[in-house]
Amino acid sequence: MSHSHDSSAPSTLRSTPSGRPLKGEVKVPGDKSISHRSLMFGALALGTTKVHGMLEGEDVLSTAGAMHQLGADITRDDDGVWHVTGRGLGALQEPEDVLDMGNSGTSARLLMGILGSHPITSVMTGDASLRKRPMGRVANPLAEMGVTVHCRSGQRLPLMVQGTDKPLPVRYKLPVASAQVKSCILLAGLNTPGETTVIETEHTRDHTEKMLTHFGAEVRVKDTDEGREITVVGQPELKAADVIVPADPSSAAFPTVAALINPGSELRLPAIGMNPHRNGLYITLKEMGADITLENERIEAGEPVADLIVRGSNLKGIDVPAERAPSMIDEYPILAIAAAFASGKTVMQGVGELRVKESDRLAAVAAGLKANGVEIEEGDDFLIVHGVGDNNKPAGGGVVETHLDHRIAMSFLVMGTAAETPVTVKDAAAINTSFPGFATLMNNLGTEIV
Ligand code: S3P
Fold this sequence. Notes:
The chain has twelve helices and 24 strands.
């Protein structure tokens, strides 16, 4: 396996308002969720899967490293296309060493499902952020399927997965709206005889369902009174498939909001993924008065994509409905920045899940906004941002702790592009998990992030 990534980001970055509008075309890196799944499913399929436009961020490289340890052959060619040669479902080899998932919850939780229905024993760990995150939400349904998972106290990493050769199919209703939990169970169900069903009462991103079908599995989706039922028929023959990865709407969110809050800006962001379970931020920003136009809406390799045109806008605060949370779950930190520049207050409800992301994002956003002169109200599962709006700007001048969270780092660097005074972000290296080259890309558009 070979990989390249930008590990040169200094750990402290300072974003200074340049007073210039942002202009240009933005090449946003590949979708993180789809990149992880391409590597995992390619490693389970027979033959060679080619992945075009894969995100080469640290999180995805953690997945690549793990799938390599489990026996897949993974290479990158000179054109940047990744080739994944799988061993076939059920044929993963026992890893010789601990699987290090770095900062990536998606890698850890989805892989636990795959490992659970392979008769091998593996040990998994991660960085200080991932070692704090709850794994009971996947260990519990896996236990129902006959998988033994021994976790550290509080059901945290490091943990050991003792996979079973006699997994049991389950019918499992998700207690939290989580695509990672849904995917973990469906992936365990892949190598399980019979049919495994997950029921979700709130719709979460559906990349696993769509991509498993693309790799030859039978997946049925049905809406019932109980919620959406997703059933995977066990033990299919997975076949290699080519994947074209759209640009990540969660990464596109950062230059988008930077353009909105810098008057006179105009950015073009080509081929951004617009899956309806991922586009909640764009709907919300438009409700706030954002000038965002979608051009060339099309389907590419099964995923809706569009070119986005974003222009500097006067934003107004709104109430973000709780039911929209799953479709914009990773975007609340950057939404909070947009809200700080808006006139009036923005109310975000039903966002308790943010407390168990790469950091406690409600606490991190609240602390960062306060440090930069923005008034907020924080509750267990809500955040209210009092926008300064009406031609005022947030004061800035604060120092922000990121707690190893890439989205906290990028959000506050975006804030600094248009605040009264610079914003400093400590330990910004986590940006490399999802958006290598972020500062350079932004500076090419007109910002000053150094
Ligand atoms: C992801 C699901 C979401 C999201 C994460 C990626 C995925 O997590 O926050 O960044 O690829 O399935 P949850 O399932 O925990 O909400």
